[in-house]
Amino acid sequence: MGEPMAASLMRAGFAVAVCAHRNREPVARLIAAGAIDAGDPAGVGRASRVVITMVPDAPQVEEALFGPNGAAPAAASGTLFIDMSTISPVATAAIDERLRAAGHLFVDSPVSGGPARAASGTLALMVGASEADFAVAEPVLKALGTPNHVGGVGMGETVKLVNQILIANIMVANAEALVFAKKAGANVEVARDVILTATGANYLLDKWLPATWLSGSFAGGFALDLLRKDLAAALDAAKGLGVPLPASALSYQLYTAASGNGHGREDYSSVATFYQTAAGVNAAEKA
Hints:
The chain has about 290 residues and is mostly helical. The chain has 14 helices and eight strands. It has helices spanning about 1-10, 25-30, 40-45, 60-65, 70-75, 90-100, 115-120, 130-140, 155-185, 190-195, 205-210, 225-240, 245-265, 270-280, and strands at about 15-20, 35, 50-55, 80-85, 105-110, 110, 125-130, 145-150. Strands 3-4-5 form a three-stranded parallel β-sheet, sandwiched between helices. A three-stranded mixed β-sheet has the order 6-7-8. A two-stranded parallel ribbon has the order 1-2. The longest helix has 29 residues, at about 155-185. It is globular and about 65 Å long. It starts with a helix and ends in an 8-residue tail after the last helix. The model has no long low-confidence stretch (mean pLDDT about 95).
């Protein structure tokens, strides 16, 4: 996600300094396209008035910002930090406190839309920030998609977790339904076309599954283990709030089973393999 997002910023006219989290190849491609090689997070901090992190989870955000070569100590006072990772709102609040104590600004802005919308600069952005900080961040965020100011710091992560709860459970429902259809002898393509005109229609059934599971491949998309991480954050936050999430807890276990069977790095529609193995059918197989 970071690579196409950085490319969108460059297309919008921003000078972009980059460094790798783990994989150097995306950085090399960005440098070839005109990005500045900052070397490490500290280099990004020194070179930037706005620092964006887009990494898997809170420990990686903390490493990038506060680690031995972290961006925060190297940045000039008043630098705006934008975390676009999906992490726990509790972790977000702690990061905000540390950055403000160092004289910096902070916005949390997780995204939705996947790599395709990252590449086209049309992501949905859920922004948690003060009014003043949102005004500073908005011109940058508009280069990446549509920024929606949803409240103070941490509320961006909260709204993103709402989205993740929904997509996790809707994907499981799609998998259950289509495997049921296949096992019962229905033509899955016909059933899907009909459902898309009925009350069971949903974005994943319409747009996502034809490009992933129903195409016969789980390559690309959004990694199952990343969604599993997001569900864990949602369950943890809900526990603190005293909110029951029984359907999400079951979905978490289903994604965990699929991950244990080797699908963790594949698109999260690979949760369907749990159902297909149990039913002995492949719903993606053409009639």
